[in-house]
What we know:
Elements: E1 2-8, H1 14-28, H2 35-39, H3 43-55, E2 63-72, E3 78-90, E4 108-116, H4 125-139, E5 144-150, H5 154-162, E6 166-176, E7 179-189
Parallel strand pairs: 4-5
Antiparallel strand pairs: 1-2, 2-3, 3-4, 5-7, 6-7
Helix pairs in contact: 1-3
Amino acid sequence: MTLGFVRPARLDDVVEITRIQLSTWRVAYRRLLPQHILDQLDEDWITRRWRDAIAEPPTPAHRVLVAVEQQESPGGPTSAYVVGFAASGPADDTALAPDEDHTVLAKAAAITDVLVEPRWGRRGHGSRLLAASVDLWRTDGFTTALAWTFADDRVTRRFLESSGWAPDGVSRSLDVDDLLVPQVRWHASLETEEGPSVTAM
C-alpha cells in the first residue's frame, strides 16, 4: 500500500531537499536556463540555504514542507521517501516586479518553491504540498497568495491554473548571465473556502 502525506521539514531532510532541487531544476529547466548555469549550481550554498530556512526561519510564517511517499509491504518493512517540498512565507520585495508599489504585499503570502522530483510526479504530491500551504496561510491571516513562474514553464503554469490560480498581469525578467528570462506572476485568493483548489502534480 502507498500513502502520501505532507509534514514540516526537519534538519535531516536538508540533503534530500537539496538533491531534489538540483535534480529537478536540471531536468525541468534545461530548456529555460543556460546549461552552464545549471551545471554550476552551488550544492553547498543551496544546502546551507535550506538548513537556515528550516532551523532559523525569519518568522513563524516562513515554512518549509516536504511531501513524503510511504510504501508498506505486507509482512515487510515500511519505506518512506521525501519526494518534493514547498517553501513559503510572507510576501516581500522578491515578490514584486521592478518599481511596483508595495501595497500588493499587504496580507499576501508568497510561495517561493514547490517542486516534486519528476520520477514521483502525477501522484498528487504537488497538490498535497499546495493544499497544506493554503491551510497554513489562512491560519496566519493571509488573504492572497503570490507565485512567480518562468513564462515558458508550462508544467508549473498548468498546475497552478488547474488549482485555481491565475496570472495577475505582472511580469518581469531575470538576468541570468546576460540572458533575460521572462517570468509571470500568479495569484490566488484565500478568502473563500472554495479556492484555490488542487489537482494532481
